[in-house]
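lol ok so funny story. i was supposed to be doing the assay writeup but got distracted and ended up predicting the structure for this chain instead. priorities right. anyway since i did it might as well share w the group, maybe its usefull for someone
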Amino acid sequence: MQVIHTIKQLREVILACKEAGKKIAFVPTMGNLHAGHLQLVSLAQTKAEIMVCSIFVNPLQFGDGEDFDKYPKTLKDDTRQLQLLGCDIVFAPSVDEMYPGSFNAGSDAGKAGVMQSQIVVPGISDILEGASRPGHFTGVATVVGKLFNMVQPDLAVFGEKDYQQLLVIKRFVNELCFPVEILSHPIVREENGLAMSSRNGYLNTEQKQQAAALYQTLQSVAQKLQSGSQDYPQLEQEAVKQLQQAGFKPDYIQIRNTDLSQPTSDSKQLVILAAAWLGNTRLIDNIQLSLQS
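and the output, tada:
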């Protein structure tokens, strides 16, 4: 397995793979890998001859006061796990390599940028997570677009836990004509139902058990929808109260069509999305469901 830190070396290696006719699969990550990440890599490996995984904590997608500075950086352990899995290339660039001259060392991510060329996906980026974290999806889309240009993959795999992010990426890939097939992998969960996330490491043992209530609340909403309830605002309000009673500070819980438009009484393909604080940790989750005709 090759661990590469510069764009120049990456492009040289990728060019050799392309010239050899090798199909390339890609999984972008921010590191601190868990079993969910590894399942994305395993899926990608079944689709191509060359497996590339990036490890880069992207400052452009963190806002003021968010956890960029304390986000866990575990490159040594991450590369060990990827090597055991049979990954071919790990791309682990520095911030200055990805954004030359755009971020000052030691400054807060949200205050540091002079990055002027960005990928903006309006509309879908401004609701739900986008409303709570302004600029977040522009940061995500920009770094993913840059990585696609560097890695030149034939396909890329993303997890469905970040459901809105997945839709943002699919949209700009389609509209900007990136030659990349986007695949998704279902949410990987802990035994108690908590969606796997690098930020789960911020939770103590008691909070990890308490956090299971987020998925349980989504399941409760899904069951009511399956039973025929269509009072979406009432279901959302009940879910907020349920989360509050479980010790969460809810940010939002909303029922949407799977394209994130507002549902109607005729909607059959739905997704329930939630974000909530547990202590100082912000967790997100979702459930997709198909209603009977």
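The first strand starts at residue 2 and ends at 4. Residues 30 and 56 are 5 Å apart (CA to CA).
back to the writeup now i swear
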